[in-house]
Design goal:
The structure is a single chain. The protein is of the alpha+beta class. 41% of the residues lie in helices and 20% in strands. Helix 2 runs antiparallel to helix 4. The protein is elongated, with a radius of gyration of 39 Å. The structure holds phenylalanine.
Length: 335
């Protein structure tokens, strides 16, 4: 029996040497260790052996079994790692270029707008998108039941809680907590219950501006916005202030830039006027100062508000606002 064990070990070594793949190893395992395998058969004979031989033979059979298992396992590992290398890494194939992410065009435009105002000494402030009626309307001199509410209509959540319809709310929040001098811009999302089309969205972005001190004049507003439009749209851009109305500024203006497509000659984009409207602005209405507890005779200031999507559409020549929100990579990839 002891010789037999030795022979089996030798036989196994030869079989193992000849094995060239995982399948052959499995055949060998069955041949030796399978239920009807060579080693198992010998194990079955153990009980009929002499009492004094039993422990020794039993031990040797176990050693053989462990040996076979160990050898099969390590040769198997060699096959698997070789196989994987061959199947998974073909170094002759061209590589797969990882697609690199980039900033959304609205984020890019926002960063650019912020950068220009930061270079002029403005600080960035933010306020909540879920607001109280007071900040969206009353404090901005838009009384209940007044027709000017329609222009800033919004989604109501519950009672006097709503989604802000403009970033002018943040003017109030800043002035409530700080005394002038104030020089800040306030970027953020706003919401309006508008039907979605090429130029309307129920959610968009605005950047609000506010500068308040003892002696801020309309000419300061013009100076700041002139620098902004030139840096944003190019040195040759002209700016035009048209009289307008906002409840929270007096006087108020709508600000146009010379059409960046036709340079003011008149084209389809500017409806043949030569001008493109880009923002609303004006001197802070004394009623707003009163609402935040400032003495209206003591301070003066200007405010403005612009739509970021509109600026991005003009700058990049995009004709449909919905493109910003559809997450189509073919569109987003171009920026
Ligand atoms: N809040 C105005 C709007 O959403 C824009 C604006 C801001 C106008 C500040 C004047 C001053 O249309």
């Amino acid at each position: 029996m002891e010789n037999e064990i030795k022979n089996i070990r030798q036989l196994f070594k030869e079989d193992l040497k000849a094995a060239s793949d995982v399948k052959a190893l499995e055949d060998i395992r069955v041949k030796y260790l399978g239920r009807k395998g060579i080693v198992s058969k010998l194990m079955e004979k153990l009980p009929s052996l002499d009492k004094d031989k039993k422990p020794l033979i039993g031990k040797e059979l176990n050693v053989l079994k462990t040996f076979i298992q160990g050898e099969l396992k390590s040769k198997g590992e060699v096959f698997i790692s070789k196989n994987n290398l061959m199947e998974e890494v073909d170094i002759t194939l061209p590589g797969i270029a990882p697609s690199v992410g980039r900033l959304h065009p609205i984020t890019k435009t926002l960063n650019e707008i912020n950068g220009i105002f930061i270079s002029l000494g403005f600080k960035i402030e933010e306020g909540p998108e879920i607001e109280k009626e007071f900040y969206n309307f009353e404090a901005l001199n838009i009384p209940l039941e007044h027709p000017s509410r329609d222009a800033f209509d919004t989604f109501y959540i519950k009672g006097d809680i709503l989604l802000r319809s403009h970033t002018s709310t943040v003017q109030i929040r800043i002035m409530e907590k700080t005394k002038p001098p104030i020089q800040a811009i306030m970027p953020g999302r706003v919401y309006r219950p508008d039907a979605v089309d090429a130029s309307h969205s129920f959610m968009f972005h605005q950047v609000e501006g506010l500068m308040v001190d003892h002696d801020i004049k309309f000419s300061d507003l013009k100076g700041v916005l002139n620098i902004f439009t030139k840096q944003m749209f190019g040195e040759k851009t002209k700016t035009r202030f048209r009289p307008s109305f906002f409840p929270f500024t007096e006087p108020s203006a709508e600000v146009d830039i010379s059409c960046i497509i036709c340079r003011g000659k008149g084209c389809r984009v500017c409806s043949h006027t030569g001008w493109l409207e880009i923002l609303g602005a004006g001197m802070v209405n004394p009623k707003v100062f009163e609402a935040v507890g400032y003495r209206a005779t003591k301070y003066a200031g200007f405010a403005f508000g612009m739509g970021v999507e509109r600026i991005a559409m003009l700058k990049y020549g995009i004709d449909d606002i919905r493109l910003f929100f559809e997450n189509d990579v073919r569109f987003l990839k171009q920026f």
